[in-house]
Amino acid sequence: MEPMHNSNEPLPRCEGPKLDPFPDPKAAIIFRRLLSDKDSEGDAHVVEATIGSTSYAIKLFKFYDFTTQRASLARHENDLVPDDLLQAHSDPFYNECRAYGRLKEHNLDGKVAVRCYGYLTFPAEIEAHLKRDFQVQDWNRTGKEYKKPVSERRPIQAIVKDLILEDAPLTGKAADKILRDLKKMRSVGVYPLDIRPRNYKAGLLVDMSIARTTPHFLFDIRGPKAVARMKSIDLGMWETMRERGKLNTRLRAVRDKECCAKLRPRKRKKTDSGQ
């Protein structure tokens, strides 16, 4: 099976970090098996594949309608964000391209997240193969596009990563490493926003499809307090993961709630149940 590579340029086409194409875009690829749930409502389908003699995990992204993100913006905010920027900062494929591009800039690729080797694009004909072999058929294409000949439909975009099959239970020691890695990512402007046990394998983050990487339009159009809240989401999710998993960790992502309550000048008892 031959991937179709539309260009040699890094993506996305906007200011900020970008991801380079896979070094050998014309290499023959053999899809071995589906790693994700074929009926998942997630952003992509993940397959184990062989390129040359090496096995990889290839994440094939579903198509994204950026108007979904636009609908979440206030009217005055919509006027500040052109369509191309909105797409580049909200499409799950571009989110991963930008996050990995930044990690590579700072030599963190493969250290805090599973190693990424670049992106590929596949012709729409690949859908028929994936449907036949793995019963995968949800790509979020519009009905209008399905009326076009297959050769005229948009190609499927994908990212090539290390294949990690280890799925060991999360421990307190591993959670501490995750937090240290998270802080490294945050220090270079990558906010993963989806810190859950299912998104980690062998202690490395494997999913950054909703990550926000600086520069990001939301950080420019929202006020300081709103931006601070957005940037703290992943820290709160780590704390939730620690608490729900009853993990014995040495570290904390945020200050102890009881300690903070004692320091408050107000006497009103805190009733917030958290996330």
TrEMBL record:
It comes from Imshaugia aleurites. It holds the Pfam family FTA2. It comes from the Eukaryota. Residues 1-20 are annotated as: Disordered. This is Uncharacterized protein.
